[in-house]
TrEMBL record:
Gene Ontology molecular function, alphabetical: scavenger receptor activity
The encoding gene: SNMP6
Chief site of localization: membrane
Protein name as annotated: Sensory neuron membrane protein
Signal sequence range: none
Sorted UniProt keywords: Glycoprotein, Membrane, Olfaction, Sensory transduction, Transmembrane, Transmembrane helix
Location(s) in or outside the cell: Membrane
Family membership: Belongs to the CD36 family.
Length: 165
């Protein structure tokens, strides 16, 4: 979160302190320093180093959205978020006075969806119809247009021949 346009998501004095996570503390009344990150702090190595046992894996923890290029419809999607709490030393509580500053993952949620079955078949048919349908209309339309113009020309000649000179 190093861009100034993201300032509203970072309540810290330094934008670099919010790098890799979205602070939602104001959304919960400022009661707890909570936020969201990608699972296992994927794409935030500085945060992942603070917690032992995490191994960010692009295959498992990345977010993606596959779009069908012709129709512009989403075909496959996956998003994962991880809820975190920011910990730090609390001088007023002796047991917590020496805590290191870190983000502690509480849980993570993953939602995935894909176009399968009838929906997938419908997207395939729709995509092919859009892709090849224009050629089909052209192939069918040109002979019909030629027949119309030929017939119109023949009827026009017949009318001209019937007109007395």
């Amino acid at each position: 979160m190093s861009e100034k346009s993201s300032r509203c998501f970072c309540q810290k004095a330094n934008l670099a302190d919010c790098q890799g996570w979205h602070d939602i503390s104001p959304c919960v009344g400022g009661i707890a320093p909570m936020g969201f990150t990608l699972p296992h702090f994927y794409r935030s190595p500085n945060l992942a180093e603070q917690v032992e046992g995490l191994s960010p894996d692009p295959e498992l923890h990345s977010t993606y959205l596959d779009m069908e290029p012709v129709l512009g419809a989403p075909v496959n999607a996956k998003i994962g978020i991880q809820g975190v709490v920011a910990f730090g030393p609390v001088e007023q509580v002796p047991l917590m006075a020496k805590l290191p500053r870190c983000m502690f993952p509480l849980m993570w949620l993953q939602v995935a969806a894909g176009a399968e079955g009838v929906l997938g078949i419908g997207l395939g048919i729709g995509s092919n119809f859009v892709r090849y349908g224009s050629w089909l209309w052209l192939i069918l339309g040109l002979p019909l247009a030629a027949r119309y113009f030929y017939r119109e020309r023949r009827q026009r000649r017949a009318r001209l021949l019937q007109f007395p000179h």
